[in-house]
Known about the structure:
The protein is an alpha+beta fold. Helices cover 28% and strands 27% of the residues. It has a 5-stranded antiparallel sheet. β2 and β3 form a beta hairpin. The longest helix has 9 residues. The chain is globular. The N and C termini lie close together (6 Å).
Amino acid sequence: MKVILCYKEFELGALTQENGKYVFESLTGKALAMQKYIIPRACKLLEGQKQVSEKLFGEYAYFLNLLKNSYIKSEANIIDGESDFEKLVKIARLNLDRGSFYLKCR
């Protein structure tokens, strides 16, 4: 399962979890998005082609803040004890505003 970070009409990169680590790999839409838009919040994550971290990248952690809204948490069917990655997958399946940054699953 991959959680795709998108900006407007572009897919910037894909997050996976491998051996307990988060792996982000840039997608082809990243270069086009960076030509067309100024993308300040994702700049650090988009600097390389592949990044690995034991902690969730801030650009993805931002979406976990949505779970403070009980309606969104309920709609996503978040269960206590789920990992951050599992929560992101469920958030990505929601039909949220896609005018700026958003997530989708693949």
